[in-house]
Design goal:
Elements (H helix, E strand, L loop, with lengths): L1 E6 L2 H17 L1 E6 L10 H6 L7 E2 L7 H19 L3 E5 L3 H12 L4 E6 L9 H12 L2 E4 L2 H9 L6 E3 L3 H16 L2 H4 L7 E5 L3 H4 L2 H13 L3 E5 L2 H10 L7 E4 L4 H9 L3 E4 L2 H9 L4 E3 L7 H5 L3 E3 L4 H10 L15 H10 L3 E2 L10 E2 L8
Parallel strand pairs: 1-2, 1-4, 2-3, 4-5, 5-6, 6-7, 8-9, 8-11, 9-10, 11-12, 12-13
Antiparallel strand pairs: 14-15
The structure holds uridine-diphosphate-N-acetylglucosamine and uridine-5'-diphosphate.
């Protein structure tokens, strides 16, 4: 098959790496970078470290309002799809690139596959929730990370073309952790002692665009009594500066770090506090206690397993959990065994994805007949 994989934001690059490797064994894959993330530390560093093939197209959309950014990707993606006529478009996650990629494909009657399908926060004020709902509705193949996702899709009537495969981020971690341990010097550079610091990331709109919530996060972090390493997403750095919010010296705000350094910072942290979906999962993979600085999470199974505590942003609540949170000894393998990419590629290897003859959504047929495409 000729497959177009759409990537645009930091977690999508990381997820693309292991899947590209598998897909390219039996298929022709073209990578389209939408340009949603463009700073070196938000984009190119991941291509370099994870040896992701250079994008075949960069749509260079840059930043913008949701409507404008999504529309620009949609319009530029349409041109690429009309030219390349792929058999399948793969989108991942819940970004504006995901939404626009799925929409562009489905408007042109090109089957779409959604990796990380079915996750829900049930909060439609989150831009990501809208992106996921639409991408799932439009996709013909839905690859789920969690078992909870299967239930969410079923509750929305989406049952065909749905596969539980586990998390491609776990594949990425398995492939890169030994290299990170060899190459990363981040602990020395930041003069950190293993297990004697906490790692924090914050970038969700609900936290960065709400001055009160951001001020509460700053106040909670200023009150903890250990070193905090905080690699800041550009939107967070900008919001902090706009509001004049400042950290005490034990909270070290640094530039976003590359994937290798991030893995080393994660695995050696005593505690992780985050509003990131990827970082919540990685904390689980690495068996590091995680506090989620949100009021809900898509990754409910990590919370049910006792490894992730939803603490919101109220300083008293964050501080109480910061001091006392201790996960249990056991950890169920809720995200699979690190072979999600192989499973996805195996499903696609079965043959081209086709629409049902009556054009129904999710009425996909896979066939082993050579040369058959939609
Ligand atoms: C996006 C995703 C979010 C994902 C996150 C991963 C949407 C709606 N949100 O959020 O789900 O968790 O990526 O990191 O798609 N900026 C830069 N340089 C860059 C990229 C962004 O300075 O390379 C700044 C710009 O001021 C921009 C802001 O960050 O306006 C937000 O970027 P954007 O891509 O719109 O959303 P994210 O917050 O990154
Ligand atoms: N990440 C990174 N450097 C950083 C912050 C995050 O490499 O400074 C990685 C992190 O390890 C995870 C992914 O980026 O693999 C998560 O991306 P992000 O938090 O931006 O988005 P989300 O997962 O919330 O969509």
């Amino acid at each position: 098959m000729k497959i177009i994989s759409v990537v645009g934001a930091r977690p999508e690059f990381i997820q693309a790496a292991p899947l590209s490797r598998e897909l390219r064994k039996h298929h022709q894959e073209l990578l389209v970078h939408t340009g949603q993330h463009y700073d070196y530390l938000m984009s190119q560093t991941f291509f370099d470290e994870l040896r992701i093939p250079a994008p075949d197209y960069n749509l260079e959309v840059g930043s913008g309002s949701h409507g404008r950014q999504t529309a620009e990707i949609l319009s530029r993606m349409e041109e690429v799809l009309l030219k390349e006529k792929p058999d399948l478009v793969i989108v991942r996650g819940d970004t504006n690139s995901t939404l626009a990629g799925a929409l562009a494909a489905s408007k042109l009657h090109i089957p779409a596959a959604h990796v990380e399908a079915g996750e829900r926060s049930f909060d439609r004020r989150m831009p990501e929730e809208i992106n996921r709902l639409v991408a799932d509705r439009l996709s013909d193949l839905l690859f789920c990370v969690s078992h909870a996702a299967l239930g969410h899709l079923a509750a929305e009537g989406i049952t065909s073309g749905v596969h539980w495969v586990g998390d491609v981020m776990l594949d990425a971690m398995h492939a890169n952790r030994p290299i990170a341990r060899e190459k990363s010097k981040v602990l020395e550079q930041l003069q950190l002692v293993k297990g004697a610091y906490a790692l924090v990331t914050v970038h969700r709109a609900a936290n960065t665009d709400d001055p009160q919530r951001l001020a509460k996060i700053v106040s909670a972090l200023n009150a903890v009594d250990e070193t905090v390493i905080f690699p800041a997403h550009p939107r967070t750095r900008k919001a902090l500066a706009d509001l004049g919010l400042e950290f005490k010296p034990h909270v070290r705000l640094i530039e976003p770090v590359g994937y290798f350094d991030m893995m080393i910072l994660e695995e050696n942290a005593r505690l992780i506090a985050t509003d990131s979906g990827g970082v919540q999962r990685e904390a689980y993979f690495m068996r590091v206690p995680c506090l989620t600085l949100r009021d809900e999470t898509e990754w409910v199974e990590t919370a049910q397993a006792g490894w992730n505590l939803l603490v919101g942003v109220e300083p008293e609540q964050v501080l109480a959990a910061w001091r006392s949170f201790t996960p249990p000894a056991d950890q169920p393998p809720i995200f699979g065994d690190g072979n999600a990419s192989r499973k996805i590629a195996g499903i696609l290897d079965a043959g081209p994805v086709r629409f049902a003859p009556d054009g129904r959504r999710n009425g996909i047929i896979t066939t082993k007949e050579p040369g058959v495409s939609q």
